Amino acid sequence: MKDQPRPRYTGACVGLCCRDMFCAGRVVEDDLKRTMQACGGSIVTTVSGLSDDVLGTCELFEEKQLGGERSVSHAGTL
Length: 78
Hints:
The protein is α+β, with helices and mostly antiparallel strands. The protein has a domain at 28-75. It has two helices and two strands. It has helices at residues 12-17, 29-39; strands spanning 60-66, 69-75. The protein has a two-stranded antiparallel sheet with strand order 1-2. The longest helix is centred in the middle third of the chain and has 11 residues, at 29-39. It is globular.
């Protein structure tokens, strides 16, 4: 991660973010379903053996801090 800002997260989240993937925990089920409907993909419980058929895509993905909560938005989806 040379010449990149130091990540706020550690472990699997950093590994996925460095590969243009998003990782989240403790997400409300309705939010998961909306994201899957918009971007495709599936809920996975392990990163072992990830394949294209479980990954969704979008053109733009942003994570923002709103008060004490983090919020994500995406554009250019299915």
